[in-house]
Structure formats: structure tokens, C-alpha cells
Design a protein that fits this description.
9 strands; alpha/beta; five-stranded antiparallel sheet; globular
Amino acid sequence: MARLRRAGRLAVLAAVAGLTLAGCGGGNIQSAGSQAAGECDDDMSMAINPWVGYEASAHVVGYIAKHKLGCEVEYKPLKEELSWQGFGSGEVDVVIENWGHQDLVNKYIKQQKTAVDVGPNGNIGVIGWYVPPWLAKAHPDVLNWKNLNKYSKQFVTSESAPKGQLLDGDPSFVTNDEALVDNLNLNFKVVYAGSEPALIQAFRQAEKNHDWMIGYFYEPQWLFQDLKLQQVQLPKYTPGCDANPEKVDCGYPRYVLNKVASKEFMQNNSPAAQLVRNFKWTNADQNTVAGYIAQDGMSPEAAAAKWVNANPDKVQQWLPKG
């Protein structure tokens, strides 16, 4: 059964290969390779979305599947929507960290029924606008959105002129920022850094050089262990205030991040599927592994191994019972 499913995935790999993207935040993403000791009655294909926290979660689960359960694990760098497309083709089994995406839930879980919600992964997601610590200290009133126009000229860049720049990350990330800028009548323009590493580098540079910068950022995020970015207060989120993407005028909700998987993969109830169902850790756990990758330069596999070996009690709770 496992080999038949794997063969099907490989047959469509060429069609998807052109859509795959380079992973971010610390090294090449490679297949986990050969089976470890023990027998696994299914293999597992995990999407790798382009931020290092996701990469950390995926590789910890993948490392356990490979080394504790003897499964074959493939890691596939894909942006969020492309990951969900893979559920129906058998190209993707698991998205380990989902940030809401009600549109994708409606399409792939409710309508096409190729995916299922596998429950929370333990992480709580926060999205917002942030400034470097020096700026918050020098001008504390910048931490309220109502005062941003007062300083808009300070944030002007060659990409945003004559407006102030609001720097976002990868265009595929969950963001309402363009609508927010318009609907709050802010004299700003959203500019995309292009990736998580580029966004992090911009914040680091702004802190080092005391440059004026405001940008999109999020938690869980290993960088907060090193650089205490300060969040700008946006209008309070209330349920439904973001229902119309073009009219959003409120801040972001807190996201209970969850796991989404192929319906077929979960119905097989293999050891790998049980591991995915049981997996649940904290923001601090993820930040630790992400820091190993992005800050310490460890490979994702080595970072996962270090954390797994240091946390046997947590790992034991995720393993299939009986």
C-alpha cells in the first residue's frame, strides 16, 4: 500500500516540480532518505512552507517518523496554497502549520474533501506591525497606528516614495496590510521584502543603524530571542472585521495554528499518521529549533535531532500507542 502511494506521487512529481520553491531560513531541504530500524507501513510527504518556524516543526516530526518509526519521509518546499493542491494528487500528505486560510479550508476540506483538519499543533500565531527597539524607545508614540501619519516622511524609501514604507515579507504570507493601509487612511505603501530572511535582515539593519522602519512580522519567531521588536497597536480585532478582504480596517486575530493533512493519508491510520495527529508543542519549542537552524547554522535534520534527543518525554507522548 505504501509503495503504491509513493509510486503515484513520483509519477506526478514532474508536474509539480515547476511549482516548488527554494526553502528559507537555513539550508537545503532534502529527502530524509532510507528507512531506519523498525517497519513503517506508510511513507510520508511533508510540505515545507517558506518560513523557518514551519521548517522546524516539519523536520522534528519527520525526524521522529524516520528514526523512531522507520518511515520514509520526503520534504517538499511549497508555498501554502500549492501545498494544499497536493492533497488531492497524493503529492503532499501533511501541512504541519496552517495559519487560518478559510478560503483553502472551504475549497479542499469542505468542497473537494481531499484534506482534513488534524487539530492544533500547539503553536499560537500572532501577526502584526513591528518597529525596531531603538525606534520604540526614542518615539514611543509610534507604537499606536493613529500616530503613524505623523511620522510617515521618516519611513520613506526609494521603493515607497513619496509615501512611507511598510515592509512585508513573502507575498504568499497571510496579510491584510494593503487593505489596512488604505482603509486606515495611512500615508504608507506596502513593499515586499520577498522572504522571511530578507525581512529579518531589514529589521536587524534598522536596529543597528537606527533607521526608521516599520514592518509586518509574526510569532512564533526565533528572532524575538535575539531582537526585541516592538508591536504597533492596530485597531482591535473583532470577529468578522476581516470578512471582506478589501474592507479590512482592524488588526489580526490570534491564530490557533493547526495541522492539515490528506484525507487518504489520515484514514490509513499508519504510525506516521498517528504521529502527526499526536504532535503538539509550544511556541518556545519551535523557536528553539528554528534558532538552531537560522541562527546557529545547523541543518534542519541536525536541529531536529538535537531537540528530539533533549526532549524524550515529549517525543514519547507523540508516538503511536500500542
